[in-house]
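User: What would this chain look like folded?
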Amino acid sequence: MPDGNSQDLISGGHLVAKALKAEGVEVIYTLCGGHIIDIYDGCVDEGIEVVDVRHEQVAAHAADGYARITGKPGCAVVTAGPGTTDAVTGVANAFRAESPMLLIGGQGAHTQHKMGSLQDLPHVDMMTPITKFAATVPDTARAADMVSMAFRECYHGAPGPSFLEIPRDVLDAKVPVEKARVPKAGAYRASTRSAGDPEAIEKLADLLVHAEKPAILLGSQVWTTRGTESAIELVRTLNIPAYMNGAGRGTLPPGDPHHFQLSRRYAFSHADVIVIVGTPFDFRMGYGKRLSPDATVVQIDLDYRTVGKNRDIDLGIVGDAGLVLKSVTEAASGHAFHGYGNGGASRRKEWLDELRAAEQTAIEKRLPSLKSDASPIHPYRLVSEIDDFLTEDSIYIGDGGDIVTFSGQVVQPKSPGHWMDPGPLGTLGVGVPFVLAAKKARPDKEVVALFGDGAFSLTGWDFETLVRYDLPFVGIVGNNSSMNQIRYGQKAKYGEERERVGNTLGDVHYDKFAQMLGGYGEEVRDPADIGPALRRARESGKPSLINVWVDPDAYAPGTMNQTMYK
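Assistant: Here's the prediction, encoded as C-alpha cells.
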C-alpha cells in the first residue's frame, strides 16, 4: 500500500481478495477486463493464484470443476457485459450439477447507472434464475461481507453457484479498514451436515434388514458430502448391491462384489427395496418411472425440494448422504434379530448372483464390439482401451454426447472422486476447463479426458492455456466428424435423406491442433494402435490429444433409445 495516511485505507478489490482467502480459495479463473483488475491486485497480495483463460465459459466451468475436485468452492472472475454473459453457461451447469462456486462479474460505475456505460447489462436479473444467490455489492465497505454472504448461500440445502456484480467505482474505491467488515475465516457460516430424521433412519434400517432384494443407487451427493466410507460400510455390512452415477462413480472399485453397473434396469425392475441417494428423479432416472411400482422406494437428498419430486416415495430423508448412511448402518446393527442375522445379509447371495449373471449377459452381448478390430474404430473398442489404460490415480473426464454415452457403460474409475462429467445440464465443452481445474487442484493426479469432436470444438482453444501453465494430461478425441447423438434422432425421425442436416462437421486433425499449440498429438486409425498411443501421450509429459477416428455409423444404446428425450 502507498505510504502515509493511506495505509489505513483498503480498496474493494483487496477486500474481495481477503474474503476469498478467508474461504480458502487458492486460485481464481478469469479473463481480464478493466472492471475487475483491482481484484487481481488484491489476489497477488493475498497469495491467490490468478489463472487467465481464453473464454469466460472456461473460467466458469473451471471454477465448477475445482469445487468438485477439492470440496471447496471454486471462483471465477469476469468482466461486465459479454464477460458475464459468456460465463452464464458455466454457472448454469454448476447450478444443475449442485456445484458450489462463486462468479464475480464487473459492472459499470454506480455514478453511470442507466446511462449506457461500457458493457452495462442487468447481470443480477439474468443470473438470479440459475444461482442460489445473486446480488450487487452496494458499497466498498460491504465488499468482503457480500463475498462471504455469497459463499454462505452456496451451501444452503444442496450446493450451488452464487453471483456477485461489483460496480467499478465500488471496487476501485478505498475505505478506512476499520469501516469495512472482513469476516473471520470459519466464523461466518454454520455446518450444513444433517444426519436426517432419527425416526426415518430407524425405519430405513428396518426396511433394509428385512428386504429380500434391496438395491441402492449412490449418486453425486455421496462424493459431494465426502460420504464414500459411509456408503461402502453400508453396502458391505448389509450386503446390498450398489449402482453409481455421476460423481458417485468410483465409490466402490471395479471388481468389488457389491459393485454393479450394467444390470441397473434389471435390478430396479425386480428389487423390493430401492434406495436412491443424492440423485433426483430427472431424465437420467426416467423421472422415476424406471423403478418397479411394487418396490418400496426411499430417497435421500440434501435438498427437501428434490425428495418425492416427479415420483411418489415411501420414505424421504433430507440430510447429508454420508451421515445418513452411517446412521442407517449403525441403526441396522440393532435390528439384526433372530432369523435376520447380519442384517439379512446371509439371505442375499442368490440376489447378488442373479444380478451378477445379468451383468455378465450384458458384457457378453457387447464383447465383440469391445474387442473389435474394425476400422473405422468402433467406439466400444476405444472406451474399452481407455478403461484398461486408467490407473487408480487417473481422474477421468467425459465431454461429449454419443462417445461419452459409450464410455459411461464401460469406463470405470478406480477410486472415489475420479469421475467428472457435466451433470444433468448435458453441457458440451466442459472437458478442457475440467482438466484445467483438476490439474491445478491435484497436480499429483493423472488426468484422462475423452472428448467428442463436437464437444472439444466448443472450448478447445484453451488447450493453449494448459500448455502455457504446463499442465499435462492425456486427451482423446473420438472423432466421427458428426454430432452423432443428434444425427441418430434425425435419421430415425426424418429419414436418411435428412439425417445430415445441421450435425456434420469437418474432418479435423486434432492431433495437429495439439502440436501447433505446443502439446503432444497423434492420429490413430487402427484399434491396435490405441493403447500404445495413450502410453506415448502419458510419457510425453505434455497436454496431449490422441485423434481417434471412430465409426460414424456406430451409436450408443442410450442414443438409439433416445433416453435423454423420453
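The two ends are 60 Å apart (CA to CA). If you want, I can go into more detail on any region.
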